[in-house]
Each structure stands twice: as C-alpha cells, then as structure tokens.
Design brief:
Pfam families: ABC_tran, OB_MalK. The chain contains nine helices and 21 strands. It has helices at 42-50, 92-102, 107-121, 136-148, 166-183, 194-200, 218-223, 228-233, 291-294; strands at 2-13, 16-27, 31-35, 57-62, 65-66, 77-80, 154-158, 186-191, 203-208, 211-216, 240-247, 253-256, 259-262, 277-282, 288-289, 298-303, 306-309, 313-320, 323-330, 340-345, 351-354. Strand 18 and strand 19 form a beta hairpin.
C-alpha cells in the first residue's frame, strides 16, 4: 500500500524552477532517503510534503488523501528538523507534551504518549531536565520524541544529525534504524551524507537540480548507477573515472592512452558503438593488488604516488589511463611511495558512462 504519493510536483520561486515534475511513491512502512548535494531540492521536497511550502503544480497524497492544500497540522505527519528547536525554559517532559497540551488532549493520554516515547528513545532519566543540561545527542532524541508523541503514520526527518560530531552521528544513526524497525512507520529522511543513506534506507532517491536521478535500493544504486553523477556521489572514497573511447571489433575494449580494458564481459544497457567517447568508472574497493590482481581479467603495473593511511585500510593513489586513480589495500600490507605494484580488476564490475550525456552505457 502506498503511504505517500507525489504526482507531477513542481515548485518555482519566481523564474527559478526548484522542483521539476516529480513523481514519487513511498510504500507503507518504507524508509526512503532523499539524497543529494546542497541545493538539489531534497529539503524543499520534504517541506512540500509537510505543507510548509505551497507547490506550483502537482498533487500530494498521504494515505490516499489529497493533502496538497491542507495545513501541516492536518496532514498526519511528524517532522524532525535540523535544528533541535526545543523550548529552553521547559523541561524535556514539557517539550515532549507541548503540542499535545495545545491540542487539549486528555492528561492521561498525554502522560501515556510521553512515557512511551521516552521509553523508546531511552530518555526516561532526562524528563526533568532542561535542554541546556543535555548533550547534543540527547537534545536530538528529545526532538525526535516530540514528533513521536504525535502517533502519526509518516515521519519526516530533515538532516537531523548534521549538527552532531561523527561519533554521535554513528550512534544516533543506529538508534533511528532501531526506531524504524520497532515502529514500522513510513519515514522520509533527507541527508547529503551518503553513508547515512546507504545504512538507513530501504530505497534511496538521488536528486540533482530538482529531479530524481535514480530511485532504487542502496546496493542497486551502488552497483549499477544510472549516470555519472550518481556514480560519483555514491561511495566513499568516490569512484575513479578514466576518460577514453570504445574501440570496437571482434574484441571490443575501452581505450585510454596506453590502456586497453577488455569489454567482452559487458552487457551494454544502451549505445556503446565503436568510437563512442565514454568514461570508465571503477570503485577503489574493486581494485586488487599483488597476487589477487594476478587472478583478475585485467591487470597492469603502476607506480604509487600517494599513500593515505585510514586506520582500517589504506588508500593508495596512482595514475591510470591519464587520470588520478585510487585503490584500497589492507592496513597491514606495506606500500611505499615510488614503489611499482601490479593492480587488477574485473571489467564486469566497472561502469561505462557516455561522455556527452553522462548516462550509463
């Protein structure tokens, strides 16, 4: 069953088109992440769903009810903002119950909902404190709890972890995942952090310029990005791109400088004729070194230019096909700048993108 449905949605600010004829269906109980760089329209789309912005065209349905022009309070949504926006003079309990008290809900029902939210978020010992006495992570839990007490079907998160340090982000990411598994509510989550997107989402909508570039499961987007933008945005460190062309014939290959990568194992989605200018994309983690490289369909000797220790592994930089090229090695494996090593990869795990359109070939 569809929980949130967006049909032909557009939003213009004067002459600037921010969202462009978007269509999106979010299934009941799904965790959907809107992912993209700053200015791509992801928070704007979330604000349209919440009713905080009036759309220029299109319709929004929540639980099969057209809410396009309904007030935010009538849409049956709970929203968590990037800012905690807690009342500093109120205790945690008062912050959690404020909206319910304004709505004149019975006292016993307010107490039940606050107690349930506090238990789920593990903030029961904090109910008597004020926001100034809480850490950043605790404040964000309270902000989530304020949405949770509304007992709604759809939760909207607008970059809720962006103000926290890396360790706390990781901890709260796990808490949000647990929260979704426990509640089984529909959740739409906005972030520019692709690690958050990959770890939290059932599906990811990658956005650019007010358009959804790809909507799919995290692993599908990671393994088969539909264009070069998605390929470069997903993954840390980013995908390597080497510019070249397709050299057709009995044994087609990707040619870039003195590099020829065999393409016999490729199944082209589209195009890919002889002479087509294209980019070969290879993820650093798909590149093997030494003995493991010897077993790969393609291998080559390169010189190491930069070594970046990263704790659990090491990122190594070289030149390949006239471009900067990185690959991962185990932290225990010694590598030195200036050393010659053999690297290899399976062309079947790489991606080819048309140089003019950026689309996957």
């Amino acid at each position: 069953m569809t929980s949130v449905s967006i049909k032909n949605l557009s939003l213009d600010f004067g002459a600037v088109s921010v969202l462009k004829s978007l269509d999106l269906d979010v299934q009941e109980g799904e965790f959907l992440v809107l992912l993209g760089p700053s200015g791509c329209g992801k928070s704007t789309l979330l604000n349209c769903i919440a009713g905080l912005l009036d759309v220029s065209d299109g319709q929004i349905f929540i639980k099969d009810r057209n809410v396009t022009w309904e007030e935010p309070k009538d849409r049956g949504i709970g929203m968590v903002f990037q800012s905690y926006a807690l009342y500093p003079q109120m205790t945690v309990e008062k912050n959690l119950s404020f909206g319910l008290r304004v709505a004149r809900m019975p006292r016993d029902e307010i107490e039940r909902r606050v107690a349930r939210a506090a238990e789920i978020l593990q903030i029961e010992p904090l109910l008597g404190r004020k926001p100034a006495e809480l850490s950043g992570g605790q404040r964000q839990r309270v902000a989530i709890g304020r949405a949770l007490v509304r007992d709604v079907d759809v939760f909207l998160f607008d970059e809720p972890l962006s103000n926290l340090d890396a360790k706390l982000r990781g901890e709260l990411r796990v808490e949000i995942k647990r929260l979704h598994q426990r509640l089984e509510n529909t959740m739409i989550y906005v972030t520019h952090d692709q690690i958050e997107a990959l770890t939290l989402a059932d599906r990811i909508a990658v956005m650019k310029g007010g358009v959804i570039q790809q909507l799919d499961a995290p692993q599908a987007i990671y393994n088969r990005p539909v264009n070069r933008f998605v390929a470069g945005f997903i993954g840390s460190p980013g995908m390597n791109f080497v510019e070249g062309r397709i050299d057709g014939g009995a044994a087609p290959a990707f040619a870039a400088g003195d590099v020829d990568v065999p393409l016999e194992r490729y199944e082209f989605d589209r195009g890919g004729s002889d002479g087509t200018a294209c980019s070969l994309g290879i993820r650093p983690e798909h590149v093997a070194l030494g003995d493991a490289a010897a077993a790969m369909p393609f291998k080559r000797e390169v010189g190491i230019e930069i070594v970046e220790p990263m704790g659990s592994d090491t990122l190594v930089w070289t030149r390949f096909g006239g471009a900067d090229f990185s690959f991962r090695v185990e932290a225990e494996k010694p590598v030195r700048v200036g050393e010659k090593v053999t690297i290899g990869f399976d062309p079947g795990r790489a991606s080819l993108f048309d140089s003019s359109s950026g689309d996957r070939l």
